Amino acid sequence: MLKTFPKGGIHPAEYKITAGKPIEVLPVPKTAIIPVSQHLGAPSTPVVKKGDTVKAGQLIAKSSAFVSANIHSSVSGKVVKIDNVTDTSGYRKTSVIIEVEGDEWDEKIDTGKTLKKEFGLSGEEIIKKTEEAGIVGLGGATFPSHIKLSVPKGKKAEVLIINGAECEPYLTSDHRLMLEKGDELMVGTKLLMKALGVEKAMIGIENNKPDAVEHLTSLAVNYKGISVHPLKVMYPQGAEKQLIKSLINREVPSGGLPIDVGTVVHNVGTAVAVYEAVQKNKPLVERLVTISGKSLKNPGNFMVRIGTPVSELIEAAGGLPEDTGKVINGGPMMGKALNTIEVPVTKGTSGILVFPENESKREEVQNCIRCARCVSICPMALEPYLLKAASERGMWEIVENDKALDCMECGSCSYICPSRLPLLDYIRLGKSNVSRIIRSRKQ
Amino acid sequence: MSKLITVSPSPHMHGKDNVKKLMYWVILALLPAFLVSVIFFGIGALIVTAVSIVACVGFEYLIQKYLMKVKPTISDGSAAVTGLLLAFNLPTNIPVWIILIGALVAIGVGKMSFGGLGNNPFNPALVGRVFLLISFPVQMTSWPEPVVSRTQYADAVTGPTPLAIIKEGISDGIPVSELMGQIPGYFDLFIGRMHGSMGEIGALALIIGGIILLARKVITWHIPVSILATIFVFTGILWGANPEANADPIFHILTGGVLLGAIFMATDYATSPMTPKGMWIYGIGIGIITVVIRIWGAYPEGVSFAILIMNAFVPILNKYIKPKRFGEEVQNG
Q1: How far apart (Å, rounded) are the C-alpha atoms in residues A378 and B325?
Q2: How many CA atoms, within 13 angstroms, populate the side-chain half-sphere of residue A384?
Q3: Would you state the pLDDT for residue B333?
Q4: DSSP result, B244-300
Q5: Do A382 and B323 count as a contact with CB atoms less than 8 A apart?
C-alpha cells in the first residue's frame, strides 16, 4: 500500500507531456526584468541605480524586513532603468531592468558542474548563506527559506520532509531535477538537515515518477538519514499538510505550522538551490521551468535565468500556438492565468502552460444538485457547497465557523463539481472577508 | 501580442462528469430492473414507463417555459429519472390518467415548486407516489399477476403482494411458517417473480444497478448499506425473538421497495445528507421507520414513507453533522 493522506483528494488527468524531456538551458535574454518582490513578504530595497554595471550573481536588492528575501542579478550588464513593470501577478511592481552584456559571473561563484559533497559549516552558517542567497520556496509559495530553517524557541524539528510529489498535472520540472540533479539534491538535503539539527529526512515522490523514486533510492544509500518514499498519485499530495500526513501521519492543527508537529517541509528545487548557495556560493538567479501545453511544438524543461520574459520561453518551446486561449503561470490546478506574456520569469515560476482556446473558457453553470462530491473530495474536510452558499449571501459567520480559512485553494471542489459551480471563487471571497473581519476585531 | 487571452482564477482544469452524465448513468443503472418488469409484466410495464417519463419531462418543460419563464432544462435528464422512478413505484395496470396526476404532483409540487433541480427537500417521485397511494388506494394496491398479465393492461388479473399476505396473515393469527407457503419461494423473490410495483420486484437486477452506480461513483455505499443493514438487523431481532409471528430478515430485504428505495430513491442527491456521518444516521432512520411501519403500522409497506420522513431531517443533519476537519483533533505521535 502506497502512503497517502486519508481525506479527500482527486485524480485529474496527468498530462506529464514533458516528463521525458531532459533539462535544456535557455539562452540568456537580451534584457532581464527583475522584480524586487518575487517572494512572500515585504519587497526588497534596490541597492543599484540606473547606469550601474552588474555581474551575474551580484546583489541588486536587499531584504527589507523579517519576511523578505535578497534579490540578485541573473545576468551581467548595465542597469538601464528601475521602473514599475507588470509581473506574473498582473500588478505593476518595482523592477530592475538590466540590458545584458556578455555573461560574466561574480568571482565568488563556482559555476562548475563538479559535485561538492563535503561541508564543514555549522547550522547557523548554512542558514546565513541560505538567507544571503535569497532562497525562497521553489514549489510556488516562495516563502523565504531561511525563516523556515530557524526553528522558533520551544519547538523542535524531528524530521525534514523534502517535497518531490509534484502533484500538479503537466508540471515536470521537479521530476527532471530529481533525475538529473539527484546528488545535488541529496547534498542539499544533508545541508538542510544540518541547519535544522535533525537526523532524519524523508523525500516524498508521487508514484507516477517511478524512475525518480528508483534513482533517488539508489543514491540515498550513500547519504545517512535520508529515505525515499513513493506516494499514491492523488492530488493534492504535494500540499504541505497533506504530505506531512502521508509521510509521518501527523496533522498540522488548523492555523498551525508544520513545526508544530515537529517537521519542516522544503521542495526538491529549494534543496538543490541550498546546495548551490552553500557549496557553490551561487545565489538564486535561475530556476527550472516546465513549459507545456497540448498544442506547443517543443514543450520542455528549461533552466531559465530569473527575469527572462515568458514570451522568450514560449519562443524556445516553438512559439505561441495559433489556438492559444490561456497562458498559466504554474500548474493547471493552482496556477494563475497571465494577462500578458510580456512578464518576467520569477523565483516562483515552476511552469508556464499554454492552453488551447477550447479549454480556456468555463462551462455553463447549473444548480447545485447537492451530490456531496465537493464534501467528499475536500482534503481539508470542509464543505465547499456550504461555504459557497454562505459567501454568496454574505453570511460571514458561517464562513468563519465552518473553517473557510483552512482552505488552501487546491481547487479540487471546483474541479469535481458536476454543475460546474465556481466553488473556489466564492470560498476565496469568503476567506478575504473573514480575514478582514478578524483583523478589524483585533483593532 | 495582439491576441486576447482568457484570464480566470484557478483551477483551469475540470473533471469530466456533469449533471447530465450522472443522470444518464442512473437511467442506465435502472435498465436491468426495467427489463425484469418487462419480462414479468409485459405491455403494462412499457405503457406505465413511457407515460410516466413523457409526462414528467413534459410537465417540467411546460412549467419552466410558461410558469417560471426560464430556459427549460429538461435535457439534464433529471425529469426523465423522476419519471422512470415514479413508474417503478406504480402497479403496471394503473390507468393512464392516474399516472398523469402522479407526474404532475411529482414534478409540479415535489420539484418545481421549490425551485427545481437541487432545491427540493423531498424526493419528487416519492411525493408523486405517496400522493397517489393516499388518493387512489384501490388502484395503487391492486398488483397484476406476473407472467400471465404480460399481454394485459387495465384488465390484468391482480393479487396482493407477499408483504400484504404476510401482514394480513399475522394479524389474523396464522403462523408465519404456514403463510410462507402462500407466497413465492426465495428464488422467485430474488429474480422478481411476484406481485408488486413495476420496478421494485427484481432484487437481483436492482443489485446489479446498485453495483453500476457504486462502480461509476455516482453514489457512495453509505446510504444503501446503512438502510439494508438496519432492516436486516432489526427484522432479524424480531424474527429471532418469535419466528412464528415475524417474517425472516431475508424476506424483508427481498420484498417490497427496500432495494429500490435503498439503492435508487434514498440516494437521490438533493434529498439526502452531504456528509458520510449524516448518511449513516439518515439510512439507519429509514431502516427503522420502514420496519416499524411494516410490523406495527397500518400499511404493509413503509419504505416510501420512511424515506420522505427522513428527507425532512436532512437539513438538520446537514446543519449539525459536520465532517471531522483536517487538523481539528490532533493525536500525533
Answers
A1: 10
A2: 32
A3: 46
A4: TTS--HHHHHHSTTHHHIIIIITT-GGGS-SSHHHHHHHHHHHHHHHHHHHHHSSSS
A5: yes
Q: Mean of the pLDDT values across residues A2-25?
A: 94
Strands B158-159 and A351-356: unpaired
Counting Cα atoms < 13 Å in the Cβ hemisphere of B106 gives: 36
A159 in reach of chain B (CB within 8 A): no
Output the CA torsion sign for A324, A327, A331, A335.
negative
List domains and CATH numbers for chain A: 1-16+105-361 (3.40.50.11540), 373-442 (no CATH)
Alpha-carbon distance A101 to A114, whole Å? Answer: 27
CA–CA separation, A80 vs B37, rounded Å?
82
- Nearest CA to B299 out of B149, B194, B171, B147 is that of B171
How far apart CA A58 and CA A283 sit, in angstroms, is 8
Over the stretch A82-131, which tens digit does the pLDDT of each residue have? 999 998 888 899 999 999 999 999 999 998 889 999 888 999 999 999 99
> A428 vs B326: CB contact, 8 Å cut-off?
no
Q: What residues of B are in the A interface, CB distance below 8 Å?
A: 1, 3, 5-15, 17-19, 21-22, 73, 76, 78, 115-119, 220, 269-270, 272-276, 318, 322-328, 330, 332-333
**Mind giving me the DSSP string for A5-32?**
-SS--B------TTTT--EEEPPPPSEE
Q: B330 to chain A: nearest residue by CA?
A: A251
* DSSP-H helix ranges across A22-172: 123-132, 145-149
Query: How far is A414 from B326, CA to CA, in rounded Å?
Result: 19
- Among the partner-chain residues A245, A261, A341, the one whose CB lies closest to the CB of B1 is A341
Instruction: Identify the segments of chain B with pLDDT beneath 50.
Output: 1, 332-333
Residues of A (62-91) whose Cβ lies below 8 Å from B: 90
pLDDT digits (tens, 9 = 90+) for A384-421: 999 999 999 999 999 999 999 999 999 999 999 999 99
CA distance B316 to chain A (A): 14
Grid cell of B32 as nine digits: 436491468
**Is the interface score ipTM higher than 0.85?**
yes
B269/B111 Cα distance (integer angstroms): 13
Cβ contact B242:B170 at 8 Å: no
